[in-house]
Design brief:
With 304 residues, this protein is an alpha+beta fold. It has 6 helices and 17 strands.
Length: 304
């Protein structure tokens, strides 16, 4: 049990606690207040209680409970790991989080098996998913091991302090060879599994592309994203009329060597600051085999 006296009047209880112990989010403190794990002057109170100078606040953080998700021995390609976070090279085909139809065999199942030092997030022993990659997108992904790391990494993504570069193999060669795409992206008004540009409820989305290599009817692009909207790169490439090869949702299969079983999109590089030390870190994941093989076919078709 931790006890501390309030020095100044007027602050909400949940905000005061989040300031005193920022390793826990304000939402987490609100849940603890509701559960009765926080008292003011020995009494349970509401989360919006305005504190007065001299109030005595006591709190206890319960031990994290086990999550209902089961650990599974699924191999992981680990690029970096310490007690605060883990960075992996996610393979294509691996779903990030359990959901209806994908209750097991996910990245979270694999992390629960691998990470024996999870400190607990939101009261559960589980990894903190900071950002997501689509099931069929491969590449660099960072996951938090502690609530403090999750909060700080999420802040960096929100404040656009991270740098992300993707490699995408698209149909056709964009003109001009480099450019900026700025639209809104939101749920498609008819096809609910798809996202679309410039819909009424859309959110601002910005991507930058640069042709790294051009072929007869395809190109490999370097893509940087300023924002992180759902399916952003896939939607923006389709908007340019250069859909990502293999994208069954936003593109169409065509004859010739430019074919693939999944979208040819890879999160190649990620730069961020360590959530505890502040050290700037850069991570890189090599191009996966299926993308390398497609590039070889495209280069061969160009010279034949």
């Amino acid at each position: 049990m931790v006890q501390k006296a309030v020095e100044k009047s007027g602050m909400r209880l949940d905000a005061w606690l989040a300031e005193e112990q920022p390793e826990h989010s304000r939402a987490r403190w609100q849940a603890l207040i509701v559960d009765g794990d926080v008292t003011v002057n020995g009494e349970s109170v509401k989360r919006n209680r305005k504190l007065q100078a001299g109030d005595r606040v006591e709190w206890a953080i319960p031990e994290p409970v086990s999550t209902n998700t089961l650990p599974e021995d699924i191999p992981l390609s680990i690029l970096y790991e310490d007690s605060h976070m883990i960075v992996i090279n996610k393979p294509a085909g691996l779903v990030v989080h359990p959901a209806a139809g994908n209750e097991d065999g996910t990245l979270v199942n694999a992390l629960l098996y691998h990470c024996k030092d999870l400190a607990g997030i939101g009261g559960e022993k589980r990894p903190g998913i900071v950002h997501r990659l689509d099931k069929d997108t491969s590449g660099v992904m960072v996951i938090a091991k502690t609530e403090q790391a999750l909060n700080e990494l999420a802040r960096q993504f929100k404040e656009r302090e991270t740098e992300k570069e993707y490699l995408a193999i698209v149909r056709g060669v964009p003109t001009p060879p480099r450019g900026r795409i700025a639209t809104t992206i939101g749920r498609h008004p008819i096809h609910r599994k798809k996202m679309a540009v410039n819909v009424r409820s859309g959110r601002h989305a910005v991507s930058y592309y640069d042709v790294a290599e051009a072929f007869n009817n395809a190109a490999m692009l370097r893509v940087r994203i300023e924002t992180g909207r759902t399916h952003q790169i896939r939607v923006h490439m389709a908007h340019l009329k250069h859909p990502i090869i293999g994208d069954k949702l936003y593109g169409r299969s065509q004859p010739g060597p430019a074919r693939a079983d999944r979208q040819m999109l890879h999160a190649a590089r990620l730069s961020l600051s360590h959530p505890d030390t502040g050290e700037r870190l850069k991570f890189q994941a090599p191009l996966p085999k299926d993308m390398e093989e497609l590039l070889t076919k495209l280069r061969g078709a160009q010279t034949s």
